[in-house]
Amino acid sequence: MSVKCAWATLLTSEHLLPGVVVFAHTLLVQHASAYPLVIMATTKLSTRARGILTSMLPEGRVVIREIEPIYPESVATGLAYARFNEVWTKLRAFELTEYGRVALVDSDMLVRRNMDELLSPPVFPEEEGEWIAASWACTCNPNRIATYPDNWIPENCGFTGQTLPQAKDPQSVVQPTKETPRPGKLINSGLVLLTPSKATMEEMIAAINTDPRVQEYRFPDQDFLADFFNTQTRHIKYLPYKYNALKKLPLVHANIWTDEDAVNVHYILDKPWNLGRPGSERNKNDPDAHVHNWWWQAFDHVKANLTAKGEGITIDKDDWQECVEKYMSL
């Protein structure tokens, strides 16, 4: 029996529209996913942005789902970035119970090949018990960001022990063990496969408001998921990097990265639309220029086909200039 599936992302502000538009185009048009994109929207998202999103593709391809934000009762004191206080709300994906399987995704991504195999069974031969699937957080901290944990070093990173070709095969990825240091068990929540469940959501909300570790999390939702699902009754299936290809991996883990295998690129840290084009006056020495260029090529294709029915998304010229390009460094 087929399972009803969807992609889901959180959107709380217009300033993220450049990323959402390009992601939606590459996911739903260029690489023709069979599943809709559910945009979880809080009241912070403007009426105009909602209209742009629901009308840019045929009806039903992009769905707006109204949600309430999640804020822990205790204030987090160790966030890596202040903006991370908003990311708890991503967990509302567990409430999308009209779907049997959901891939929670970030909108700062670029799809380079159809990846519906993640949602179409069997991704894994055995799916007993409650589980999520995700790839690792890279805990090497190559930029030496001061707000990152001290134990985020290459020796503790989940990617460090991976080798080709195992690193790109869901069945052959080297999974963590009980002895693996905690950083090597952490996930990056840019892409998380999950089974929606109101009961699980209620348990998570209770834990978010009572677990003392919540105050110390640097990366709230993904640190929480790593702890919540690494138990005797729940578990994490670690995915190959290719489905959540962090843009820093070519520099930090070059032994497992190949351009061809990067199915879905995740533009963590600085966003390409904020930095400007690689080689521009504003962005002369971009260490990630090669990967950023992929995003700009997709953006240019979207812009060139805005009014070409069937060739891409459809957005009114004024909406494009005032709600998409407005938030970019062109």
UniProtKB/TrEMBL annotation:
An annotated Gene Ontology molecular function: transferase activity
Superkingdom in the source lineage: Eukaryota
InterPro entries assigned to the protein according to its UniProt record, in alphabetical order: GNT1/Glycosyltrans_8, Nucleotide-diphossugar_trans
Keywords: Transferase
Protein name in the entry: Nucleotide-diphospho-sugar transferase
Organism in which the protein naturally occurs: Pseudozyma antarctica (Yeast)
Organism classification: Eukaryota, Fungi, Dikarya, Basidiomycota, Ustilaginomycotina
